[in-house]
Amino acid sequence: MVNSTTSIDSSAFNPERPRWVYVAALLLGNAALALGPWAVRLSDTGPVAAGFWRLFLALPFLALLARRNGEPLRGLGWPVFSLVIVAGVVFAFDLASWHIGIGLTRLGNATLFGNSGSLVLMVWGFVLWRRLPRALEWLAIAFAIGGAAILMGESLQISGRTLIGDLFCLLAGMFYAAYLLILQNAREKLGSWSLLTWSSLAGAPVLLAIALLRGEPVWPQNWWPIIALFILSQLVGQGLLVYSLKHFPPLLIGLALLTQPAIAALTGWFAFGESVGWTDLLGMVLLGMALVLARGFSPTAARVAKTLSSD
Length: 311
Known about the structure:
Blueprint: H1 19-34, H2 36-42, H3 47-68, H4 78-102, H5 107-114, H6 117-129, H7 135-158, H8 160-182, H9 192-213, H10 224-244, H11 250-257, H12 259-272, H13 278-297, H14 299-309
């Protein structure tokens, strides 16, 4: 799941580095995030407990990266601090919903629905500005409805449990959109690593509380899936995206995002025997194109994402 996007800034390119370096970072960051659901599945803790460890273990590394990049961790002021804490709690709900959904549905579906925040932001823009969608926005909505209907219909044919997993992942996308909206103003005073540090610090105890209330096993017997999860999702994936996103327009970022469900679906097929038929592929393509259109052409999604990740 991607934490931020931005619009292109040609002056941001380091002239000493060729552009392929940023392209590689963007693609590898998405690939690392796509492997996160696989690690959640392999964990012998509960899914929400895995989310707790993902945030908790990453905290010292995130704080170190914030310091190294000169981003403030103190003196935020109560208004900004309170926004970041609330956003961290919402981010915890996002991870809890997504991780529960990962255990119930196919990995490709979980990744697509978990990244639906761009569509939610686009719809929120219509409400905020009291206007109807325009041509490409109508197309994004049609693709989203069609793709979601196909994927959920296929899930229902497998079992009602799989459909419930899709709905949990869709709920996660809504929580993530709320997380982005809450942080619009806070991002003006903080950097990406500082935001991730404070939101992780606020979200980790919430995830632990939810895991305990659900009666999940929290302490892992096998640490390797947990270590893989926090390294792939919270450090490598987020790190490469923070490094690369500011160099690309939202449309290209949306296209790169499509590597996530593709890799997740392949992982689900290879590791867990999850089948992907032609109908599933059609649903994935439609929903994927809806995400690209929403991210690339929706003023609300682009503006919010730019606010959150421009340096």
